[in-house]
Amino acid sequence: MTLQVLIVDDEPLARSRMRTLLAGCATPAVNVAGEAANAAQAMELLARTPLDAVFLDVQMPGADGVTLARTLRGMARPPAIVFVTAHAEHAVAAFEVEAIDYLTKPVRLERLQAALEKVERRSAPGAEAEPEVLLIQDRGRTERVPLAEVVYFKAELKYVTVRTPDRSYILDGSLAELEEKFSDQFLRVHRNALVARKAVRALEKHYDAEEGEGWAVRLTGIDELLAVSRRQLTAVREALGS
Fold it and tell me: pTM for this one?
């Protein structure tokens, strides 16, 4: 199959370079169906032409790339989003709009090749959805943490701790946003914590130094107990019984 792609960047030279890079990729076959300098032009093209992927700059005049990506998610058949930007700090925003990949300028051919292979897998007839991941900034680099490995999210001051069986990460975001996005997979057990529904093992009596006698949930993969608020107790019991 030939992938139909759109390049969206306000800089003509950047669009030209991306077109050249795409032409240099050995496989899969790619056809640049159009170019756009801003979000409005991109939407006009997308209204006329079904596309497999959009290679999208983040910072543009008017609506930026993240705003455009949110709009594209509402389409009946949204294209895969590949962000292409000089600013690595936008990686977290890419996770929020479910971008399939995130390339930093200057783009290396091998990274572009890898992104195209992801688009090809997503576009193939009968293809399964890509596993959901969190993009987390960690000591100057971006880590991809599979959502399926996350045991809990816990609000800590201005950040959220992301806990897997192996380690903890710090995510710059809000618990409310995570709950809205992943409510089918995560359950609120306290005002400051969401737990993976599939990880809930047991509900136990627990004494907390701040809250006194109460309940806590035991989770698969970690020894730590998480307090359960009285307000969430019924929901946790229902999750255990389902």
Answer: 0.58
pLDDT in tens, 59-76: 888 998 889 998 988 887
Structure tokens at 170: 């710090």
DSSP 159-210: EEEEE-SS-EEEESS-HHHHHHHSTTTEEEEETTEEEEGGGEEEEEEEEETT
Kindly tell me if the per-residue pLDDT of 130 is higher than 70.
no
d(CA 219, CA 195): 8
The encoded tokens of residue 72 equal: 């594209």
Give the integer Cα–Cα distance in Å for 68 and 55: 12
CA end-to-end span of the chain: 43
CA 119 – CA 71 distance, rounded (Å): 19
Residue 182 corresponds to which amino acid? F
